[in-house]
Amino acid sequence: MTSAARWTAARVAHPVADLQRSTAFYGELLGLPRRGGFTGHDGYDGVFFELPGGTELELTTGPARPRPGTEEDLLVLYLGTADAVREAADRLGTAGVTAVPAANPYWDRWGRTFLDPDGYRVVLAAADRAESVLHVELHDGPRADLRWSFELAEDSAEQLDSYLDAGLVLVAVTGGGDVVGHLQLVGTEDPAVRELKNMAVRADLRGRGVGARLVEAAVELLASEDATLLLVATGAADVGNLRFYQRQGFRFRAVERDVFTEAAGYPPGLEVDGIPLLDQVWLDRAVPRPGEA
């Protein structure tokens, strides 16, 4: 058995069309340290940049033309947190750098993908994946565009039709522009009380804090509107939802029996984790005034 090679260094080399422009992109916009360069080496000019971990990126101009390759050929640069990624992405966006959706949705969950001046794909990703690189915003488009998300939390088409267009909706959006979750707020008979009517997160992103961010964004919005209480109703059989809402500060308020019936448009025999889905549990959470913890 031969011993493993003891590599001493590594370098990634890219041909570029305009060395000055590419040098500005990697040095000034991305902030990679420059390690020198060369001119007139057998028809090539080049610049070296230090990559994290001690490797190098070499950019050259010469006989070879840039060939960016496939959508999966990436240079991934890690920043410490999602906030750092957002700040760097905003800086690139302000400079007019083109952002593109990632071919692999994994990179949209943890970062943003940009094209360098020659079309090479550069991903800015969060090393700390405690939260996805997401932002929460008000949805101002057609509600029909979000029906797929509402259907993740509503088994009755009849019931969904009755409230889909009500109230307002917050959406969680990836760096690539994909909606991965939503939260709907509607009014009640009491102007100071709102109801969280429907909420869902795409299955592959559950358990990553997206739902919690939607709830907190909703509470902040309601605080600015002088609301004092937020209600939510969920199936008594759905232990996961009950656990989630209590972790977000909600407390039990009431139980409403025989809500999920065929008469209300729900299919017969609904179960959650083997528990018949029949009754509905109401919970509430106080909305703090602005400035209160």
From TrEMBL:
Q: Which PROSITE patterns match?
A: GNAT, VOC
Q: Pfam families from the xrefs?
A: Acetyltransf_1, YycE-like_C, YycE-like_N
Tagged with keyword Chaperone: no
What are the GO MF terms of this UniProt record?
acyltransferase activity, transferring groups other than amino-acyl groups; lyase activity
What are the UniProt keywords, alphabetically?
A: Acyltransferase, Lyase, Transferase
Q: Which domain of life is it from?
A: Bacteria
Q: What residue stretches are annotated with the VOC domain?
A: 8-127
Fetch the InterPro entries from UniProt. Answer: Acyl_CoA_acyltransferase (IPR016181), Bact_Acetyltransf (IPR050832), Glyas_Bleomycin-R_OHBP_Dase (IPR029068), GNAT_dom (IPR000182), VOC_core (IPR037523), YycE-like_C (IPR058997), YycE-like_N (IPR058998)
Looking at the record, the residues that make up the N-acetyltransferase domain are 120-273
PANTHER family linked:
AMINOALKYLPHOSPHONATE N-ACETYLTRANSFERASE-RELATED-RELATED
Q: Please identify the protein, giving its name as recorded.
A: Putative N-acetyltransferase YhbS/putative enzyme related to lactoylglutathione lyase
* Biological source species: Petropleomorpha daqingensis
